[in-house]
């Protein structure tokens, strides 16, 4: 089995910032992502109680290293200041590299 | 019945009691929770019921009388939003983003408050004009659009004056700012007009208008008789969320706390007086006042978080839900009802002087 190295970008943010991130992804021609609703605690307090739009979302994107830099730059420039958001990158291996 | 008695009897209605119960449940850290699907469903149900009701009544009353109250409501809502901004910015020393966000939260309308108002009137045996449901729908995005427009203008002006100190060729920056405003505004307009609240409200008004009283018969049980019961269930959820936020109220500060009580009172009473002058019925005047008094706490975060992300959401959610909403449904609603009954029937039942004179003699 041959695994090809790609990057996994994981973003946990308030659910109202999710659309902004998806817009940024599509701007960089990234069409594949997975989102789910999550709860948690962080510097902006306990999240996920109360109204639905106060929940958090977790977004996972597998992408090639070339695009990673631009996406991370734009997310941090446009969203870090005003939204509850955490972002990290990990190395993962995939079987079908042509999908990303 | 005097105002205090009215407040007292209003306090002992299931709606208010369940709201207070929800707060207590949250304070004792109970795991009581309304399932998410239900708390998402209830606002849709309430808006559908309000819309159907409005549509059916508009069929009998027609549209002609609707136009003036609607335009006056829009005008007052815009005026109040500007007024809020001045107060928050000059007296409250809030930053420009928080000021605009709060100003529009309090200029906007609350559909839940509106539902509680309808059920309060039902309790008092008073009806209101059906077209107020249409006013509710039209009023929903108005204050937000104004605030977003003004925020973007202020931001682009700031950017252009900053740039001007470096270079004289600043025209393009203003254009960029204007362009951004246009993009944001059209996005907000589209999102609020196609948003679920307005779509279900307008849709049910149209359906109500088409089906009329006879068509309403078979669904009356669900959309009329269950209405107050559904509000009660929703109030548990509202109480729990408000209770979870009680600690945040300390962070809101004395200024905003008094703002969250004084502004709705002022706006509401003006609304009642203006509505009476326009010839609305007793119930209609109370609902008109309530439209102007209420603050938005469900729609506001969704709109403002994207349109004015710099504003602190816990300020506007906490003050609107934690302070203004309970104040409106417990205290202000009976006050506005008393004011409206006094204006509609000066010789009538509510006459505080009479009571005190009788006591003296």
Description of the structure:
The complex is a heterodimer of chains A (100) and B (361). Chain A is an alpha+beta fold. Chain A has one domain (4-92): Alpha-Beta Plaits. Chain A has helices spanning 18-27, 65-79; strands at 4-14, 34-38, 56-63, 85-94. A 4-stranded antiparallel β-sheet of chain A has the order 2-3-1-4. The relative contact order of chain A is 0.34. In chain B, helix 4 (67-91) packs across helix 7, helix 6 packs antiparallel against helix 13 and helix 7 packs antiparallel against helix 8. Helix content of chain B is 82%, strand content 0%. Residues 349-361 of chain B have low confidence and may be disordered. Chain B is built from 16 helices and no strands. Chain B is an all-alpha fold and 361 residues long. Classes of the chains: A alpha+beta (100), B mainly alpha (361). The A-B interface holds A 14, 16-17, 19-20, 45, 49-54, 81-83 and B 36, 40, 240-241, 244-245, 298, 301-302, 305-306, 309-310, 314, 317.
